[in-house]
Specification:
This is Methyltransferase domain-containing protein. The chain is α/β, with parallel strands linked by helices and 242 residues long.
Length: 242
């Protein structure tokens, strides 16, 4: 669930612009956490709510006979497994080998064919040579954008994997100026979360437009999800490959 970019500067919402390698910290953190993720009821419920919000809002994007999906920063596949019955195939991509291993272990245990759903470890650059040149009808990225230092580059990369007319769906924390002010937040939170206040509609619109995506839509998707000590709301942003 970490960024494919390396050390960069965080300039969102007036945050400090010191250089920090969020990519390396996220990879280390999620490799360690991977075995415990699927057993967490809070994560399970959040994944169900996110998947339901995407399918209810945009039912035409989920076609069992046709839709090919990439789940970027897929983690252990909690969201992937919720939507995979409603699409033709799904490829999970994550920089954490621990997360990818757990993803594929769960798929194997359930006896699901690898042609339908699997995950691979990759640090995508969007240069046209990756993932065997695959393009997708739908790219999703859920509850991960706040971990990426360079969200502009990530958005460009994700858009590059869409077919013409394909859609990018991003679900993440809705901007709240008080999110990062809690003194009880653990140290690892500060090490792995690049955007501690979430994202506003205006920010996401600018990111999508810069990434070559049109027909932007933004809505509140899931409310009152608890992250550490805070209750947060999640947005759902959509853009179409121009």
């Amino acid at each position: 669930m970490s960024d494919s970019t390396q050390s960069t500067q965080n300039k969102v919402h007036g945050h400090s612009t010191h250089t920090h390698d969020y990519a390396a910290e996220n990879q280390k953190h999620f490799d360690k956490e991977a075995p415990q993720v699927d057993a967490n009821p809070q994560f399970q419920e959040g994944a169900r709510d996110i998947a339901r919000a995407m399918r209810v809002r945009y039912p035409s994007l989920f076609n069992k006979e046709e839709t090919t999906v990439m789940d970027f920063a897929c983690g252990t596949g909690l969201v992937s497994r919720e939507i995979s019955p409603h699409v033709k195939s799904l490829l999970g991509v994550d920089v954490s080998q621990g997360m990818v291993d757990q993803f594929n272990l769960r798929v194997s245990d359930q006896g699901v064919p690898l042609e339908e759903i699997k995950a691979t470890r990759a640090e995508l650059k969007g240069d046209g040579t990756e993932l065997d040149g695959q393009k997708f009808d739908l790219v999703i990225c859920t509850a991960a954008y706040h971990h990426f230092a360079n969200v502009e580059e990530i958005t460009r990369i994700l858009a590059s994997f869409l077919k013409p007319g394909g859609s990018l769906l991003v679900v993440d924390i809705l901007y709240n100026e008080t999110l990062h002010t809690d003194p009880d937040l653990p140290e690892h939170f500060h090490q792995v979360v690049a955007h501690k206040n979430g994202f506003s509609e205006a920010e996401m619109r600018a990111l999508f437009e810069q990434g070559g995506l049109g027909a932007f839509e933004f809505t509140e998707a899931v409310t009152q999800i608890k992250i550490l000590t805070k209750e947060v709301n999640f947005f759902l942003a959509k853009g179409i490959k121009v």
